[in-house]
Amino acid sequence: MPYFMSIEPTNHCNLGCTECPSGLKEFSRAMGNVDLNSIQKITAQVKANLIHLILYFQGEPTMVKDFSEIVAHLVSQKIFVSTSTNGHYLTPRKCEEIVKSGLQHLIISMDGFTQEVYETYRKQGNVEKVKIGISNLIEAKQKFKSKTPLIDIQMVVFAHNEHEIDLVRDFSRKIKADKFTLKSAQIYDYEEKTHLIPSDKSLSRYIQDEDGWKINNKLENECWRAQSGCVVTWDGFMVPCCFDKDATYQLGNVLEDSVDEVFQGEKRQKFLQNIQSNRKAIDICTNCTEGKRIF
Fold first, then answer.
1. Contact (CB, 8 A) for 233 and 29
2. Distances from the Cα of 43 to the Cα of 22, 75, 141, angstroms
3. Whole-model pTM?
4. What is the 3 state secondary structure string of 123-151?
5. Own/partner long-range contacts of 268-275 (Cβ < 8 Å, ≥24 apart)
6. Which of 59, 72, 75, 57 is nearest to 5 (CA)?
7. CA separation for the pair 91, 99 (Å, rounded)
8. Beta strands 229-232; 237-239: pairing state
9. Which of 22, 27, 177, 273 is placed for a possible disulfide with 58 were both Cys, Cβ 3.0 to 4.6 Å?
10. Contact 101, 68 (CB under 8 A)
């Protein structure tokens, strides 16, 4: 059974981020939201082995109406829960619901300090709204004297925003967030979109040599993430990992069959064998950082 699992609350999103299939509305798979019954059915089977459940895959989780109710159920089952948000729905009321739900870890994306820089990638986004949302969450934690959720302000680093890293870091310290994290940007068609790659190569997952641009990863024939965990879409399809954003490699449906049947099933075993024989031949692996530490 998986030690790690991601379950997708929704693949809908309010933003139009330029390197995100959810933001670009480019999914070929169905759109929708998970429901509490589905969450209960899935997690009842895995909670004994589960170390960490990520309530996120694609989309904006806090758009789901019963998001806090779902989190509260998972926490009641003694499951460690984290999620990631773009921060646009962190109203005072929503923040109080999140704190009371018991959510342990919340990543809030803030990919720039000024609006001009922020909206370069986060199309239709408002960085001041994100800043206010973070303040609302901190106030809610203080109101209920809660240590959770751990507030992790995360900055996805591109060429256009790397000069604002210190500004976002200083904001995180000033507002007393629990953590500030840099994340290297995944860039589709990175050979063509070199203008998005940071000039500081330590902040990039791509390198340039005499043959051009390539991912800075040997892509050895192993993958700890795919071996130990999985991702489940809002409608129950298990996929190998978070790089299969359009659920191309569906291994089965855990709302129709048991998690054990799908996780131990023939399709997943075949996928793992393909990793072990030639990982570079699997398209979703060719832009992957598993096996390489970026920061």
1. yes
2. 25, 11, 27
3. 0.94
4. CCCCHHHHHHHHHHHHHHHHHCCCCCCEE
5. 268/230, 268/238, 268/240, 271/226, 271/240, 272/226, 272/227, 275/221, 275/222, 275/223, 275/226
6. 57
7. 12
8. antiparallel
9. 22
10. yes
